[in-house]
Structures are given as C-alpha cells and as structure tokens.
Amino acid sequence: MSHPARHSAVHTIVNRAAPKPPELRDDLHELYGKNVFDLAQMREHLPERAYRALESCIERGTELEPELADLVANAMKEWALERGATHFTHWFQPMTGLTAEKHDSFLAIEDGRMLLEFSGKQLVKGEPDASSFPSGGLRATFEARGYTAWDPTSPAFIRETAMGATLCIPTAFCSWTGDALDKKTPLLRSCEALNKAALRMLKVLGDEKTEYVYPTVGAEQEYFLIDREFYLQRPDLIATGRTLFGAQPPKGQQLEDHYFGSISPRVLAYMHEVERELWKLGVPVKTRHNEVAPSQFEIAPIFERTTVSTDHNMLTMEVLRQVAQRHGFQCLLHEKPFAGVNGSGKHNNWSMSTSGGENLLEPGHTPDENMRFIVFLTATIRAVDLHAELLRMTIATAGNDHRLGANEAPPAIISIYLGEQLSAVVDALITGEPRGSKGGESGTMKLGVSTLPPLPRDATDRNRTSPFAFTGNKFEFRAVGSSQSISQPNTVLNTIVAESLRIIADEIEAKVAAGTSREQAVQQTVQGVLQKHQRVIFNGNGYSSEWHEEAAKRGLPNLPTAVDAIGQFSTEETVAMFERHAVLSKRECDSRTNVMFEAYAKAISIEAQSAITLASSALLPAAFRFQRELAESIEAARRVGAKSLARQEKRLQDLAARIDQALGALETLEQAYEAAESHADSAEGHARTCRNTVVPASLALREACDSLETLVDNDLWPLPKYEEMLFIH
Ligand code: ADP
Ligand code: MG
Fold first, then answer.
1. How far from the centroid of its chain's Cα atoms is residue 278's Cα?
2. By CB count within 10 A, which of 23, 152, 361, 473 is most buried?
3. Residue 303, ligand 1, Cβ within 6 A
4. CB of 286 closer than 6 A to ligand 1?
C-alpha cells in the first residue's frame, strides 16, 4: 500500500495492455524519406533547369533566383498537397534552443473563389511575429519584427499528426537589421568559414580537384523513459524537466545490469515507432540500445552534413517526446533528471568531408593522404587547445552543470584523447625521432613521404572519460548536453578549426615563399604547432582527481560552472575571430551571451520556485501528518501503560529535527530566491547570484526533504519515488 495517487499509478501501469507487435507490412524503401522533399523528389517535380540550379544552391550555398523560387514553391506545394498537407510553416530555431513555427494555410481567395497558393516569395521569406523570442537585447520592441529565410541546404518535410499534415520549410531567422536571431544562421556561416579555410589548406597541400568542403556530424542522443502516470504526479519534472527531490533507491545502477541489456517489449515498441517516424522524415537513425542508468536509452543516426544533422537532431528530440505520449511514456531529455544516477549527453561526432566524399580526418594510406590527415588533425588540436574555454561555453547550461565532472561524464576541463598509437605519432612528429615500438614502424615520420601504421579502431581502446576523443576517423565531443541544440557547439568547432587552418596555411605559405620545399614547410609547421599545443592531449582517466591537478599544472582552463563559461562568448579575441570569419558580429556575440545568462538564471529561478512550492505544500505537510501519527501512537501506548517508549520518542524527536532542518532550508531558499530576483535587471548578475546562493540553497532543501522521505510513512509520501519511476514500466 502506498500514497493513494502513487498506488493508482502503479495499478494503471501494471494493467497496461501489452504492446501490439509493430506492423511490418510496408516496404522500408518506400517508408524512408517518404515525407521529405529531397533531391529525388525535386528531380521528379521540377523542370531540369530549376533542378540543376537548386542542386547547386544546396551543394555550394549559391543563391536561388526569384523566378526559380516560384517554380520550386509550386512543385513543393503540389507534392505537399498530394500528401494531404493543408498548411505550411517556416520552421526555425530561435535562441531558446527549441524549434518554432507559425502555420499558414495554402488558402487564398481571388474574386471570391478559393485557390491553393504557395508562391516563391512565401517559400523564400516569412515574417513570424517574433517579438516574444529572446534576442538578448538585439531588437528593441519597436522594431520587433524579424524574418525567416529558406535554407535550401536542408530539405523541406511534411509533419503528420493526428490533426493533419503540415509542410515544414527549414529556415534561418534574422532581424530586419540582418542580425542573426537563431541558432541556424551562425551555423550556416561557420560551415562556409570552414569551407573556405579548408579549401585553401587543401590547395596549399597541392589538392586542385576538391571543389568544396563541409563538416559532418552524427549526434548520438541519450534519454530517459518513465511511465507518464508517474510523470504527471511529479510537478518538478513537469516544470523543470528534472526531479528536484527524491531519495536514492535501494537499487540504483550499481548492478550495471541495464547497460546493453535486452530491451523490454514495451520500450521496443516505442523505439520502433520512433524509428519509423524518423525514417519517414529522412532521419537516418540506425542504432538503439540501453544506456548505463536504469530506464536510460540511446538512439544514434548515421552522420550527415552538419546543417542537416542539426535539423535532424531537433526532429529526433521532438519525435522522441511525441511518440512517448502515445505509448504512455514520458521522454526526459534533461541532462540530469535523477540525482545519483547517470545523466544524459549527446555525443557530437564531428569531421570534415571533401566534395569528393573523402573524410579529412581519415588516416590515409598514401604519403599524401597521411600528410593531409596530420595537417587537419594538427589544426583541430591547436583549435581545441587555444579555444578550450570557448568550447566549454558552448555546452554551458544549468542542466549540464549537474553532469559535467560528476564522475560519469567528462570533466569541465577540455582535453583531447588521441589513443596511444596516434599519440606516439604526434610525439615522433614533435621530436623528429623514430616512433617507439608501439608505433609499429621504425624510421622517422616524414610528411609527404611516410605513411601511418593502421590505427586501431576498436571501442575498448577508447577513453570514455575524455570530453573530446579521437575515435578512428572523427572527433567525438562528448560533453554536449542531451537537451541542447548541437548548433552552437558545431558553430564554434567549425570556426575555431577554420581559424587554425588559416594560421597554419599562412605559416606554410610563408615558408614555401622563402624557398623551403612544401614537405619541409609542412613538417616544420606541424612540429611547431604540435609542440605548442600538445599539453591539451591527455589519454588517461579524466574522472580522476590527479587529472585535475595535472591539468592545472599544464595550465589548462577549468571552468566548473556554466556561469564561469558563458562570458567566454564575448571576449575580445573571440569576437575578433568570429568577425574575421564572418560568423558572428560583436552585437551578435553580446546578445547571445545575454541570452545564455538569462536562460541560466531562468532555469535556476524556476527550479527554486518549484522546489519551494513542492516542499511547503506537499512534502512538509506529509511530514507533519506523520509527526502527528507518531505522536498519537506514542500517546496511545503511554495510555495503556507501555514502559519502554524511549526509542519511539527518539524517533519522534529525530523527525522533528529533520522537519526543523527542512523548514530552515526552505526559509533560506525563499530568501535567496527573493534576493536573486532583485538582481534580475542584469542577466549576468542575476545568473551569478543564482549560482552562488540559490543553487546551494536548493540543494540544502533537497537534502533535508530527501532525508524526510526515508523516514516518513510510505503511505503518506506524495511523490512517486525513484525506485518506482526508474524500475516500474
Ligand atoms: P562508435 O561510437 O561505436 O564508433 P559509430 O561508428 O557508429 O560508433 O559512430 C558513432 C557516430 O559517429 C554515428 O552517428 C556515426 O554516423 C558518426 N560518424 C561516423 N563517421 C563520421 C564522420 N566522418 N563524421 C561525423 N560523424 C561520423
Ligand atoms: Mg559514442
């Protein structure tokens, strides 16, 4: 027997109908990309000339002529109508980190007659009422309008719901002054910056055939699933996405029996539907498995062009959430929904590809390929070392603070894992001496002459404690939070690598101009750069306390909380770099800094309000009720002449002491919250005060209430407990 509401939740869950086996009648070939206006659809629906022009827009980012836009819009409309769409929307990614849309129908009236219309103008440009999206001060309310512009590099798609179908057009979102108001615009600009810098580097290395370069990303997504019955009884989960209270369950993840364990039929049915929905949208999700924590799972796609995989990750999160409800689940994307249980991240696998489809981080087979690999690797190492603080900034959210450095996720110190063999190669390049026996080859490494030994790619060799690991032919940025958009991490990654490529190309060119051979110039430059930046390479255990000491000795920055990191967005050097590569202006950097501080403070304030309400209106009342029961039962025992009541009285006193502690903590939190609100006029000041006073006060209240949970009569406790949420479905 438990609290009536909790009891009925368990009852409902236990009596849920078994999941229906999925319908496998339709052909996967037909399903995949069914709802995407992709190149194949364009070819079918467009005149040859328009198709060619559009293809070039997509591949090279050239602009679309207005008359072609009309043709494309018309083809898109016909295609969408055939699939039952009645409305269209410009789908965009405001700085909230979510997606937004405003629906318009195709309906038009002319001379009293109804027409279905969709013009090139409507396709290319939209005007959402944008005044309620954060702009970080970029847009005074009198000029509150912004506009959305079609991004042809990301295909339009149809979203089906039970309530009808909508044609979604991926767009960038800008103010009338041309400032980016979204997460997509800077990402697109950073891809262009990387394209330019990488192309130039390839030319320096003698590659004349590559036409363009683009970054690629595959984002592995972790999430929790709990039964929706429990979710609806947790106001903290509803308001903040994480549990603000909850004592540790007797069985946590100590047994590690969940990781890669078999997936329950109910969860499997859910995953299956998620995959089908995503396949229809052309999202190439491929793998699924249990994660470390109980009720934690992962879904991973095949990598794509960064702009597309970023959209696709947003869609993945949306579909994970929506399909969960149909299966009686709630999908939790928060970085730390449960204290004491592993958090969720998003592993951002990143690399660069040439127009010819060659991966620039693939260790090559020939001396030329080897040289190219080493140069792009060196540029990335330099970028991550020099801009570690900026990279740290890209993952700075209130949610991720619970996860980074919590002995289950990479520390907030940014370092690079290369693995033993590649590290030996780097050492050899620095010292100019032969690689050790581990390198598998004797002789010095001469760029342009030597080849690399095959590098192992098995998972065991991988360091899971590193925030930035080389995994065979790509880097895996593992510190990204599970709920965040991957736009910003990739915008920064692309830009800092572009900057490094620029500096390194300058140096090689200068040496060549002074008469050094190309091979020699590359060799010397790489040697110098690696020497300077090798401190960022670390192959050991990133969770250990020794690493924190060692990192400090090496002078690597450690920004433990989001508030420490956010300001890195608008330092002088950062702004200069973003401006040099035309990714972000100073105004845009400043506004984004503001938005991030605001988002942090808002998250902490909502958590504080939610904790205060829950503690005072639900948890403490349960404790008071139990106190009365206990007092009454001691009184009753005394009345019948029971003698040894000392233990019972001690328990009552213990309870009273814990209640008192909780009341004290509640008062402190209320005061801290009020005081922090008085700083709300400055985003940074507000965030700082929240971090310094509200966060510790919330934690103290949680500890006091969790200790009550372990004492108070189970029947009286109003919130579903950890063991129920994590183990019953
Ligand atoms: P593992 O983590 O076991 O190495 P995978 O090889 O499946 O797993 O890769 C993990 C993710 O990395 C997948 O999403 C995969 O598509 C992506 N990935 C692989 N190669 C690249 C690449 N060149 N660029 C970006 N992402 C990549
Ligand atoms: Mg991984």
1. 18
2. 152
3. yes
4. no
What are the backbone dihedrals phi and psi of residue 37, each rounded to the nearest 5 degrees, phi first? -85, 75
Please state the atom number of ligand 1 nearest to the C-alpha of residue 476.
12
Please give the pLDDT value at position 104.
84
Long-range contacts of 50-54 (CB under 8 A, 24+ apart): 50/75, 54/152
User: Given the structure tokens 């990309």, which residue do they identify?
Assistant: 33
Q: Distance between CA atoms of 727 and 729, rounded to whole angstroms?
A: 7
Distances (CA, A) of 678 to 78, 604, 687: 55, 14, 12
Q: How far is CA 40 from each of CA 30, 36, 44, 111, 432, rounded to the nearest angstrom?
A: 13, 10, 6, 37, 51
CA dihedral defined by 701, 704, 705, 707, rounded to 10 degrees?
Answer: 160
CB atoms near residue 709 (< 10 Å): 19
Which regions in the chain score pLDDT beneath 50? 141-142, 437-440, 459-460
Q: How far apart are CA 249 and CA 253, in angstroms?
A: 9
Q: What is the 3-state secondary structure (H, E, C) of 257-286?
A: CCCCCCCCHHHHHHHHHHHHHHHHCCCCEE
The span from the first CA to the last CA of the chain, in angstroms, equals 18
Q: What is the CA(97)–ligand 2 centre distance, in A?
A: 23
Matching residue, tokens 């106190």 = 627
User: 3-state class of 470 per DSSP?
Assistant: strand
Q: How far apart are CA 246 and CA 232, in angstroms?
A: 15
Given the CA of residue 219, which atom of ligand 1 is nearest to it? Answer: 14
Dihedral of alpha carbons 683, 685, 688, 692, sign: negative
Mutate to test the pocket of ligand 1, among 222, 286, 310, 474 (most ligand atoms within 8 A of CB): 474
Contacts of 434 (CB under 8 A, 6+ apart): 428, 442, 443, 444
Calpha distance 574→663 (Å, rounded):
46
Q: What is the pLDDT of residues 532-584, one digit of tens each?
A: 999 999 999 888 889 999 999 999 999 999 999 999 999 999 999 999 999 99
For residue 697 the two structure tokens come to 């006060």
Q: Hey, which bits of 600-701 come out as E strands?
A: none
Q: Which ligand 1 atom minimizes the distance to the CA of 362?
A: 23
> Per the confidence metrics, is the pTM higher than 0.70?
yes
Classify residue 639 as left (phi > 0), alpha (psi -120 to 50) or beta: alpha
Looking at residue 506, the DSSP 8-state letter turns out to be H
Backbone angles phi, psi at 416, to 5 degrees: -115, 135
pLDDT, one tens digit per residue, over 324-349 is: 999 999 999 999 999 999 999 999 99
